[in-house]
Amino acid sequence: MWLLPGWPVVRRETLTRIRDKFTSQGIDPAIAESLAVTILSAVEGAVVIAQAQRSTRPVEEVGARLAELVALHLPAGPDPSAP
């Protein structure tokens, strides 16, 4: 039973938005789906830990690692050093 009745809908909509953002940036749809689940799960866990520790550090650390993960999957853009 959910403590917040609307939470499953919010979670599903959030996953869809994240996935769609990644696919619009050229990430394969299956990878985009996996990244969306990973991101939402990691952020939810970081919030729980941050509350327990009374610190924002877990959220900051997870955010930094997730940014690195997403960067690995983004298509390469033009080389800024190219003439």
Explained architecture:
This protein has 83 residues and is mostly helical. The chain is built from three helices and no strands. The model has no long low-confidence stretch (mean pLDDT 87). The longest helix is centred in the middle third of the chain and has 25 residues, at 29-53.
Low-confidence stretches: none
Rg computed from alpha carbons, rounded to a whole number of angstroms = 16 Å
Number of helices: 3
Helix content: over 70%
| Overall body shape | flat
Q: What summary fits the major beta sheet?
A: none
Structural class: mainly alpha
Short description:
The protein has 83 residues and is mainly α. It is 72% helix and 0% strand.
Present the secondary structure layout.
Blueprint: H1 7-24, H2 29-53, H3 57-73
Helix pairs in contact: 1-2, 2-3
Name some characteristics of this structure.
0% strand; mainly alpha
